[in-house]
Amino acid sequence: MLVNVSYNNKTQRESIDTLVGKPFTLINRLKLGGVGSPKLHVVSSSKEIDSLFVLDHNDNTCNIELRPNGIILRFRSLLETYGLIIPYYKLTLFKGSGEAYSIHMEHHKVSISSKSKSVREFFKKIQQQKASISGDYL
Q1: What is the tally of structural domains in the chain?
Q2: pLDDT tens for each residue of 88-135
Q3: Which of 28, 41, 89, 117 has its CA 20 to 30 A from that of 97?
């Protein structure tokens, strides 16, 4: 689900929380070693997301937040913040050739450059979180 998360909307926040869960508590964040990704550079994306990136001339960057039942991929375009809400059961990760990871959900796709070690470690953390709750929906 691709939504504009710039404004505080109670119904939208509740629908996001039902899909991917409420944010981790402070204690759980410390246990996981952080739930936010470093700044990620977008290499390519699907048409719908790419049409938002084309609107401004800034670098195409995003960040990822871990939630108990999924991830939220956030990016900015024209002073607006958009979020791609991805539950773990719809999340597909691919390690591409070279230094690129690709995140897929239904018809949405975002390819990310992974030149730093911290980015690769964060994607391992995503895979571990997905595997830890996979017993719930298998």
Answers
A1: 1
A2: 999 999 987 778 899 999 899 999 988 888 888 899 999 999 998 877
A3: 89
Question: Is residue 137 domain-resident?
Answer: no
Q: In which order are the strands placed within the sheet that holds 70-77?
A: 2-4, 80-87, 70-77, 61-67, 40-45, 108-113, 100-105, 92-95
Buried b (16+ CB within 10 A) or exposed e, 3-34: eebeeeeeebeeebeebbbeebeeeeeeeeee
CA nearest 39: which of 112, 125, 124, 126?
112
> In which domain, by residue range, is 108 found?
2-132
